[in-house]
Amino acid sequence: MLRFALLCILFFCTCLNLQAQSTALRTAIADIAKEAKGTVGVYIINLETRDTVSYNGNSRLPMQSVMKFPIAIAVLHTIDEQKLALDQMIHVTENDLPKTYSPLRDKYPDGNIDISVRKLLSYMVSLSDNNACDILLKALGGPENVEKYIHQIGVKNIAIKASEAQMATAWDIQFTNWCEPEAMARLLDKSFNAGFLSKNSHNYLWQIMKETSTGPKQIKDMLPKGTVVYHKTGRSTTNEEGVNAATNDVGIITLPNGNHLAIAIFVSNSTVDLPKRESVIARIARAAYDNAVN
After folding, report:
1. What does the alpha-carbon distance between residue 5 and residue 12 come to, in Å, rounded to a whole number?
2. Which CATH number is 26-293 given?
3. Is 163 a catalytic residue?
4. Which of the following is catalytic: 54, 122, 147, 164?
5. Quick one: three-class SS letters along 264-291?
6. Is 41 in contact with 268 (CB distance < 8 Å)?
7. Helix 117-126, helix 130-140: angle, nearest 10
8. Which region holds residue 237: left if phi is over 0, alpha if psi is between -120 and 50, else beta?
């Protein structure tokens, strides 16, 4: 009886400690978020302990290139269904390569090339290539098919309505591709599970997420050197009124004990410059990391 009572006290104290840690982290996030002078949405899940922290986690915020993460999942699911193949070649014409942010276009400005789905996925995720994104969207039958698939796997609060080319035509269109930070963190959680995709698809997804080179001053910037991070960034332009619609980073942080944090950080409608927006993301990520390891 005494042993049971002691276990109950220990459990109660542990719960109080975890609650205090979550409250402290949420307070720290709120203080950092003020500097963005916009809307900051954050959702964090410890994938092993299942602890969560939310700050505006159910706000609908524009994704920008973060949408390339669910698109990649949809492509790999289609490969697992044997409707596409990683090494399948897709013919790319000059018309498939409009002027936009596109390392693929930089390398092949005249098009008329055959490129594998594997390489297009790498361009899209690791380099955030807009043209590679739209070529893969076309292969999937359009944004609506990606959205339908993501909803079918149980992640509802994500909307994918427009291609990169469509978003480039008008400021407001980017807001049709939105998600709640919680939904994105849940998608990270679900897709990090080794049984979610085939082994080959799973390994390739997280390889190209690990190889992401965009946003080095965001989630990764203030973490200890050597920390393994799998992530996808998204960023909009700044309009004539000085408002930046989206500076985002979402991903998985590997902790020293082998646990993992799924973290989604969105900075929307901010009026501060890029270094300050990136600093907000970096400091929130570091606060989440410190909270998890201490």
Report:
1. 11
2. 3.40.710.10
3. no
4. 164
5. EEEEEEECCCHHHHHHHHHHHHHHHHHH
6. yes
7. 130
8. beta
Give which of 237, 231, 239, 247 is closest to 280, Cα–Cα: 247
pTM of the model: 0.93
Is 48 catalytic? The answer is: no
Q: Is 180:174 a contact under the CB 8 Å cutoff?
A: no
Strand, coil or helix: what is 154? coil
Please identify which of the residues 65, 122, 268, 270 carries the catalytic annotation.
65
| Residue 139: its H or E element | helix 130-140
CA-CA distance, 115 to 108, in Å (whole number)?
11
Domain residue extents for the chain: 26-293
Alpha-carbon gap, residue 88 to 98, rounded angstroms: 23
Q: Which residues of 54-85 are buried (b: 16+ CB within 10 A; e: fewer)?
A: bbbbebbbbbbbbbbbbbbbbbbbbbeeeebe
For 126, the token pair is 């690791």
List, in sequence order, every residue forming a beta bridge with 274; answer none if it has no partner.
none
pLDDT digits over 28-40, tens only? 999 999 999 999 9
Closest of 69, 134, 136, 68 to residue 100, by C-alpha: 134
CA-CA distance, 169 to 187, in Å (whole number)? 28
Indicate the pairing of strand 229-235 with strand 244-254.
antiparallel
3-state DSSP assignment of residue 44: strand
Residues forming a β-bridge with 179? 61, 158
- The structure tokens 């690990």 sit at 210
pLDDT in tens, 207-262: 999 999 999 999 999 999 999 999 999 999 999 999 999 999 999 999 999 999 99
pLDDT at 6 over 90: no
